[in-house]
Amino acid sequence: MKNIGITLALIIALMSCKSEKKNEAITNPQEQEKMELSNKEKGIALLRSLETGDQEPVGYINADKYIQHNLAVTDGLEGFVAVLQNAPEGGFKADVVRAYQDGDYVFTHTIYDFFGPKIGFDVFRFENGLIVEHWDNLIDLAPPNPSGHTQTNGPTESIDIDKTETNKTVVRDFVSTILMKGEMEKLGSFIDSGVENYIQHNPAIADGLSGLGKALEGMAKQGITMEYITIHKVLGEGNFVLTISEGTFAGKPTSYYDLFRVDNGKIVEHWDVMETILPKSERKNTNGKFNFPDEA
Length: 296
Description:
Layout (H helix, E strand, L loop, with lengths): L7 H16 L5 H7 L3 H14 L14 E2 L7 H10 L7 E10 L2 E9 L3 E11 L2 E11 L23 H17 L18 E2 L7 H14 L4 E12 L2 E10 L2 E12 L2 E11 L20
Parallel strand pairs: 1-5, 6-10
Antiparallel strand pairs: 2-3, 3-4, 4-5, 7-8, 8-9, 9-10
C-alpha cells in the first residue's frame, strides 16, 4: 500500500462525501449510467485498493451492514480498516486474475502478497450496489504442479453465458456424486478420460484422470483422508463455476473452494484453494466460515 496510515475516520468521511454526491440532482441520467460501475468492477477495485491505497473503493462497502466471514478478521468495516493498517513494509499486492458475477454475488481469483505470497478466492454479496458480505479462502503460493500448471494460469474469459445454470448443475452433481459420495465409477460422466481434456491446477496433481488417481493413491498410502461433507454455495458465470464446500482434510475441518471450467457438459479444467478452518478459540468474529443467506 502506498498509504498505510488510513484511519476509520477518514474512510467514514469519504463515504459520507460519496453519499452526499449521490443525493445531488442528476442533470444527465445517461452520463450517470455511463459512470456507474458494475458490481464486478467494484469488487475488483476493492481488491486492487489493497495494493494501490486508493480510498475510493472503500465507499463500495455498506458500513452499516458489512459482514465478514474471514475468521481471522474483525467484523464490519473496522475489521477491513484494521487489515489495511497492519500491512507489512512495502504493502500488500493483489493481482485479480479472474472475476465473475452471479446475481448479487461477485467471485474473484487473485494472486496476493498478503502476509506472504498467496492465492485466494473472494466472494462478495451486494445489496443495492454496495458490498454487504464477504467470504474468502487463502492458500500459500506453490510451484507449478507435475504438469507444469500454476495455481492461476489458464483461460479467464467466460463464455456460454446462456448455459450458466446448466453448467452449475453439472458441477454440483460432480461434487455431490464424486467428491461427497465417492461414486468413482461415474467419473467418466463428468470428466473425459483423455489427459488433454482435463487440465489440473492443484499444485500436487497432474493432468487427466490418471493424475487424479495417482494423487488419491498417494494420499491413501500416507493415511491422508479428504472428505467433502456439505456444499454451501454454487456460483457461476457461463462456463466457469465455483463451489464452496465444507469437509475435512487429514482430519482437520477444511473449507474447499473449487473453480471448474465446463465445456460441452464436461469438466475440462480445475483450480482450487483448500484452507483449514480456524478453531473457535482463534476466531475474531462469530459469523462462521460459510453461513450464506441463501445456501447452495
